[in-house]
TrEMBL record:
FMN hydroxy acid dehydrogenase domain ranges (all copies): 1-367
The keyword Lyase is annotated on this UniProt entry: no
EC number: 1.1.2.3
Lineage: Eukaryota, Fungi, Dikarya, Basidiomycota, Agaricomycotina
Name the UniProt record assigns to this protein: L-lactate dehydrogenase (cytochrome)
Requisite cofactors: heme b; FMN
Biological process (GO), any one: lactate metabolic process
Reaction(s) catalysed by this chain's protein: (S)-lactate + 2 Fe(III)-[cytochrome c] = 2 Fe(II)-[cytochrome c] + pyruvate + 2 H(+)
Enzyme class, spelled out: oxidoreductase
Keyword Signal among UniProt keywords: no
Subcellular location: Mitochondrion intermembrane space
Amino acid sequence: PPLSEILNLHDFEAIARLVMHERTWAYYSSAADDEISTRENHAAYHRVWFRPRVLRDVSTVDWSTTILGQPSSMPVYISATALGKLAHPDGELNLTRAAGNHGVIQMVPTMASFTFDEIVDAAKPGQAQFLQLYVNRDRNITKKLVQHAEKRGVKGLFVTVDTPQLGRRERDMRMRFANQEPTEAPQNTPQDRERVQKAANVVNSFIDPALNWNDIPWLQSITKMPIVLKGVQSWADAFEAYDRGLAGVVLSNHGGRQLEFARSGLEMLVEVTQHFKQKRGITFPNDKFQLFVDGGVRRATDVIKAVALGATAVGLGRPFLYASAYGQPGVERAMQILHDEFEMNMRLLGARTIKDLVPELVDASSIHAH
Ligand code: FNR
């Protein structure tokens, strides 16, 4: 269907399933074990309801914000997803260019299908980008990448901490056993798919499972970029990150692809903010330490819920990959859809700016923090 008939981000997923090579679909959509955490990522948002305010002048609404000090047109960023080329020949570059046109920040993956420089070169002058980092066993490789990224103007470092090894994604494994040869899809060459197979092995040999808290001072010593831990899942680790002077954490279960039965980011957010408030007297959002959430976010209402509960911004992974099947225009359409959903829902909620999104606007009482 033409892009004009795509009404929401779920539509992109339905179409991606039809048009993408089945091995690409399996790699993108699959998750750990029985995929319970992935389902929970969506379900958690369904447990939070709105408590709108009325009779506020909402003739103009504005959902622009800043993320790690960088302006963003919405409290949404593109989370890192490996191997973007499987969706489209221009892969990650579609995301970069669409992000540039819409004032959205892209988190560039360590395991991108284009080189880091190709992706940075595709950005507009002044366009903010972040780097997602898998810390290599060979710390020199990591040091070079980080310092090169900083030199190229990257504005934040998201260190993935939930992947000491890859989770077990059985739908993806089955596809590889089937070993089907491609029929059409020129953007999806046998070499591209081979990269997927290799990627799993590469990731496992590349990422250092020995990474631990004692490596954090080293990371802080090699860069001035703000450092955020991606994949924190408990208030205790969030406290640890805070105490070590990090810039924030992404509360995430990696799209359900790592530890099965990991809770959803939204659930963790409620827990983390409650503990910070009760034990430290710290509330969110604040400029010193930022909370991010990802996993299962498909609607502006999901984003609004997370922001109302204290998140600075929310990451989306799969939706932009699926939209990328349409190339850059698809990714731009996805951003436009979110933008339009924001405008309407902010109005209906009686919120004019991001600052108006406070916890009182949602009922999160079905989420129990421990
Ligand atoms: C990911 N994600 C991810 N995260 C990361 O830190 N490094 C990576 O290389 C990847 N690669 C990756 C590939 C694919 C195909 C997916 C779907 C996800 C996780 C990603 O950054 C994010 O946490 C989730 O995608 C968020 O969930 P949703 O938005 O996909 O539901």
